[in-house]
Amino acid sequence: MKRTGQRIVLATTATVAVVTVAVVMGAALFSLDQLPVDLPLIALAVLAMASVGFLLSVRVPANAVGWLLAVSALALGVEILGLAYAQGSQAFAGGSWPGTAVAGWLYSNLLSVPVLIMTIGIPLIFPDGRLLSPRWRWLVALVILSSIPSLLKAGFGSRVIPDTTIENPFYIDGLGPALAVIQLPDITGVVVFLVAIASVAIRYRRGNVVERQQLKWLIAATSFAAIAWQIVIVGEIAGSDAVTAVGWYGGLLAFSAFPIAIGIAVLRYRLYEIDRIISRTIAWAVVTGVLVAVFVGGVVALQAALTTYTQGETFAVAVSTLVVAALFQPLRRQVQSAVDRRFDRATYDAQRTVEAFAERLRDEVALDAVVADLHRTVATSIKPTSFGLWLRQS
Questions:
Q1: Would you call the peptide bond into 127 cis, given omega within 30 degrees of 0 as the criterion?
Q2: DSSP string spanning 123-165?
Q3: 292 and 180 in a common domain
């Protein structure tokens, strides 16, 4: 049974990969109505979900996280295929290709599957593949109950497939009013999402060191996506297409980062690198912000002060650039040290331990004392499972 399940996952992964590559190549060849960067980024997300889902399903088949990722990859891959087929049919044959309506229906209705899995399903069972307790089953039931009416209405209650001009082949007359009676309020989805986030917070609070490191990977990937979508909102409000595009493409990249972070966390490969990644990201963001402020402020101040003596902004830009270049290394060291003390304490303490050993080594002449000190330093900073020292005979 286990081998059969693994074969199914392998076949699903291979199919999704082939479909994704075929769709991207087809979009490039036939210039379908898509932004040039969208499809490759979505294809990358599908491949990441499929690859990590297959790997986890094979390595830890009892963990449902891998299976959910595989299902997400399959749903998203089929959705892309439906989109490409329906658009190709309309562009080149006036919608006369066989199965055009079914392809459009799949494109319109399958996106909710990976969205629900990524935003609610995986956070509820990450990282061990189980709910916090049997009492949390009510939330799973609420997710299913709240999703069924809207899914049925979108799939079977509309004469025209949403987001398309194609007639719905599965339309059921009179279903829309009936579903409106039993549909839960829109706020239900928000409540379910917040409860799923709360479950992650509860796991982090109760978890041991390893579980907290695993959850940090999930939180980091989720934060990346949240920041990207906030940039999209800012771009929409400001009316800046460039800012909106940056946030949109960042959000698409987050779909690839999410399964990769999950794979690292569940398999525990380089698990403790997350503290270093967080500290470096925060440090570089702070340094970049300070240097940009210094550069812009320097240019503005120098232009205002020297406007009667110089023409143009070349001198102000040159001086500001030199100031920023001089400030970069000292500022980076200070900011990185401050951030490490807060977000990467283990690395910071290890560095301090090694530096202290180097200072003591200058004054120590007894070989036995040096070896003992080295052993303590390695055990404190690196924490290896075993330690050996080879000395060359004189």
A1: yes
A2: HHHTTTTS-SSGGGHHHHHHHHHHHHHHHHHHHHS-SB-TTSS
A3: no
pLDDT at 27: 61
Whether the predicted pLDDT of 311 surpasses 70: no
Q: What pLDDT sits at residue 35? A: 42
Does any domain span residue 277?
A: no
Question: Does pLDDT of 348 surpass 70?
Answer: no
Q: Tokens representing 84?
A: 């490409």
pLDDT at res. 232: 80
- Give the orientation angle of helix 273-306 with respect to helix 314-343, to 10 degrees: 150
141, 208: one domain: yes
Residue 386: inside a domain: no
Tell me the C-alpha distance between 185 and 145, whole Å: 12
CA dist 380 and 355 (Å) reads: 13
The predicted model gives 66-83 an average pLDDT of 85
Same domain, 169 and 230: yes
- Residue 223 reports pLDDT greater than 50: yes
Residue 363: inside a domain, yes or no?
A: no
Separation of alpha carbons 371 and 382, rounded Å: 16
Residue 99's Cβ-count burial label (10 Å; 0-12, 13-18, 19+) is middle
Same domain, 248 and 307: no
Where does a domain end: 297, 313, 343? 343
Range of the domain at 289: 282-343
**Residue 324 pLDDT exceeds 70:** yes
Distance CA 134, CA 128 (A): 14
What is the number of domains present in the chain? 2
Mean pLDDT of the chain: 76
Tell me phi and psi for residue 106, to 5 degrees.
Answer: -65, -45
